[in-house]
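2024-03-11 09:14:02 DEBUG pipeline.ingest accepted 1 chain
2024-03-11 09:14:02 DEBUG pipeline.ingest length=153
2024-03-11 09:14:03 DEBUG pipeline.predict start
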Amino acid sequence: MRTGAIIYPILAGDTDLTTLVPSTKIFAVRALQQTTAPYIVYREISCVPTNTTGPDATADTSDPRASQRSILDVCTVQISCFAEDYLAVENIAYQVRKTLDREWGTVDAPYNTEVYLDGCIFESCIDDYDDDFGDRGIYIKHLDFRLRIRRII
């Protein structure tokens, strides 16, 4: 959980990526209607808590469940890149991978007190094409990433 709070600032903060796709064209779950290419849509595909617990110095000691809650989620996020030609979508996807693969660290405020990105790993990608988009269709590349998110309970 909180994958959007992790993914968006990283993508929007990469100047090499935002020269290809402005940060105003990076969307969660779905793009706005009538959005013109190029653009990016990210979505959480799954998020599985691990059966890992640990001591938490800030945990509420009056609640015995606090120390038993999972502190590590493993989430899959799909980043879909859209462009009018294949080379453009390839360039965008390449930059997304370069930006996210093996990324880790503190999450931007206000979520920095809730989660920490232990790691982000590129897993796979697939090409796609939508004939029904606009007058000419659109090229799409879907990239899947696995995120290990440490929850700060």
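2024-03-11 09:14:41 DEBUG pipeline.report The mean pLDDT is 90.
2024-03-11 09:14:41 DEBUG pipeline.predict end
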